[in-house]
Amino acid sequence: MFSTENFIIAVFCCVDDLWNEVSLGKKIRRGGFAPSLSDSEVITMEIVGEFKGIETDKGIWSYFRVHWSDLLPGIRSRTAFIRQASNLWCYKQQLQKLLARNLGGYDDSIHLIDGFPISLCHYQRAKNCQLFMREANFGYCASKNEKYSGFHGHLVVSAEGIITGFCLTAANVSEREALWDVVAGISGLLIGDKGYLSNSLQSDLNFSQLNLQTPKRSNLIDRRPRHLVRALIQTRRLVETVIGQLVERFHLGKVQASDYMRRTMRLCGI
């Protein structure tokens, strides 16, 4: 049986191998005392903690402090762990891109794109909310048929479900505008929903070797074969499944931070 201990060790080995590739074996700190936990250990704690459904940095630190201090004897203060985890946000992005590349995510000829709401608070309570006053905005979620205040996530995955692009914007930013921030490094067929429907956008993407295909609205004539349209819709459901998993297991739809930088750092950890 694959135990939690074996899972932690397996994640650490994977992270440590990727870390050596990203850091090229060089020290990333110029001076000061070396942290008691290695960077690979800190990132492993975040990944395992998020996978187990622990929503906060404090909760992750407490879980490993209580249950796995023998496996990670370098665990010290909670503040040191949180600070070290926050300072690694840029390297976490590089690790994710390297992992996606090693898994063949960027080489896939088919990619799927979709957006999803990250609600800060209910629409009726937004006027009393003081968090993210400069960054957040009002948006509309078509799937839930409701207005909300917060952010909008934009995700691109390969046909195998490997994440190759993600960005976070205010809730009122169009999915078509955010598309350019998540399609770097990919080519081939890009499947989206009706929110990406735009002739000019399709033409612009052709210069980037991307063929954007979306369902047509009911008031537009679709000259494509019906079996092709059905295949596009069925294939696109994979990105909805990936988003559902990220929201359910990693709480991607919740805002567990009090400032925009900290929110970005937590997303890098996921």
Order of helices and strands: HHHHHEEEEHEHEHH
Total strands: the figure is 6
By helix and strand content, what is the structural category?
alpha/beta
β-sheet strand percentage: 15-25%
Distance between the termini: 26 Å
DSSP summary: helix tally: 9
Quaternary state, please? single chain
What sort of overall outline do the alpha carbons produce when their principal axes are compared?
globular
Largest sheet: 6 strands, mixed
Overall pLDDT metric = 85
Question: Which spans of ≥5 residues are poorly predicted at pLDDT below 50?
Answer: none
Radius of gyration: 20 Å
Helix content: 40-55%
Describe what this molecule looks like in 3D.
The chain is built from nine helices and six strands. With 270 residues, the chain is an alpha/beta fold. Strands 1, 2, 3, 4, 5 and 6 form a six-stranded mixed beta sheet that branches. Strand 3 and strand 4 (163-170) form a beta hairpin. The model has no long low-confidence stretch (mean pLDDT 85).
